[in-house]
Fold this sequence. Notes:
By secondary structure, the chain is α+β, with helices and mostly antiparallel strands. The protein folds into two domains: 3-83, Orthogonal Bundle (434 Repressor (Amino-terminal Domain)), CATH 1.10.260.40; 89-222, Umud Fragment, subunit A (Ribbon). Helices cover 26% and strands 23% of the residues. It contains six helices and nine strands. It has helices at residues 3-14, 19-26, 30-37, 45-55, 72-83, 120-127; strands at residues 89-92, 115-118, 135-139, 154-158, 168-174, 177-186, 189-193, 202-204, 212-222. A seven-stranded antiparallel β-sheet has the order 3-4-9-5-6-7-8, with no helix packed on it. Strands 1-2 form a two-stranded antiparallel ribbon. The model is unreliable at 66-84 and 104-109 (pLDDT under 50).
Amino acid sequence: MNKIGNKIRQIRKAKKMTILELANAVGSDVGNISRLERGIQGYSDAMLRKIADGLSVHISELFSTEDDGDTVDSYSIKSLSESGRKNVYRVDVLDVSASAGDGANTGDVVEIIRSIEYVPEYAKTMFGNRPQGSVMLINVRGDSMTGTLEPGDLIFVDTLAKFFDGDGIYVFDFNGDTFVKRLQKVKFELKVISDNKAYETWSVTPDEMDMLHIQGKVLISQSQQIRRHG
């Protein structure tokens, strides 16, 4: 049995869920879940996220290899106690990959940080009154936004902004590629602007709007520059 399948089985049993209940929760069938738990069927990122949601855990828990998580009883205590915390404002990874270069398929980005938890009062100063779950984070790739966003920076995205609502920096998919770019409306077109002037501005015309899918609007960026002191 593979590690992820085994972990899914452990969490499911700790929550006293049957395979049928988990299958119904993720919109799959019993056979698929059973084969996944036994390690004889592959899985996609989308499926793992559905399973994590169905089990009410963060997706990172499916990859846990800690020794104290190898039994149902100990995992139940650890997982259920952590999932029940209400004194934090949690920001998870956005379910796309964002490229500040020439675009990238979602599988090309490795999640460096999976989630950040803030004291609610501090989160309010950062994100205003936006509800938990509406702000998500992702790492920037490429150098086309250099001067504003540097390669490796964390960006915090308002995922409730699914449509263009004024000039700003957006995370969006265009014709299968994912970008972090500045969008500006000029007459009937959207100009796609890179803050690094080495990259040309391009446009999304009215006829191309159905290929544009906005994932959210960038609120805040945070440098991930590493400084060693020892």
